[in-house]
């Protein structure tokens, strides 16, 4: 055995392990998943989990698995301006998630992750009266995503995994105490990349 051969095998082995570590897998069965794959919302842990095609089919019915895992829908719907002032959340980058028990939470990104507030249920119902599409938001797995920072006027119904992606963008780009100069262009790019889908 030559040194070059052993060294080459070591380099290949290390590269294979690095590539394997980057490959996403299904959080239920550990099968590799494609770049575009389904997600499940774990209602107990309040986390999004990756799912392969076969596992996602198992949870297409909301009652499957006693409701612990909910298949995250793919729908994205751009809304006209929605006056969220009635909800009493004084931030411009936030998402509102109706819960299965009828409550509604507002969550906004911060350098440490999501901050959460409770929203008055009556206020959410009042807002849904002015914007009927909000009544179609699936509890736990869809949200009203709002960005009114720097004069923007973005209002979307999105899957919950989009909201967590937005939080990840903020955490990744935040610098210093005020966020720095990279955060808002990155957030604006996130919204520019959103496309409607059913």
Could you explain the architecture of this structure?
The chain is of the alpha+beta class and 198 residues long. It is 31% helix and 24% strand. The chain has helices spanning 3-22, 53-58, 121-130, 160-173, 183-193, and strands at 38-42, 47-51, 69-71, 77-78, 93-98, 104-110, 113-119, 142-147, 154-159. Strands 4-9-8-5-6-7 form a six-stranded antiparallel β-sheet. A three-stranded antiparallel β-sheet has the order 2-1-3. Strand 5 and strand 6 form a beta hairpin. Helix 4 (160-173) runs antiparallel to helix 5. The mean pLDDT is 87. Pfam families: DUF5947.
Structural class: alpha+beta
**Can you list the strand order of the major beta sheet?**
4-9-8-5-6-7
Shape: globular
Percent range for β-strand residues? 15-25%
Radius of gyration: 20 Å
The averaged pLDDT comes out at 87
**Helix content estimate:** 25-40%
Question: Are there runs of 5+ residues with pLDDT below 50, and where?
Answer: none
Helix/strand order: HEEHEEEEEHEEHH
Number of strands: 9
Q: Major sheet, described briefly?
A: 6 strands, antiparallel
Please count the helical segments: 5
Write down the oligomeric state.
single chain
Our measurement of the CA-to-CA distance between the termini, rounded to an integer number of angstroms, reads 58 Å
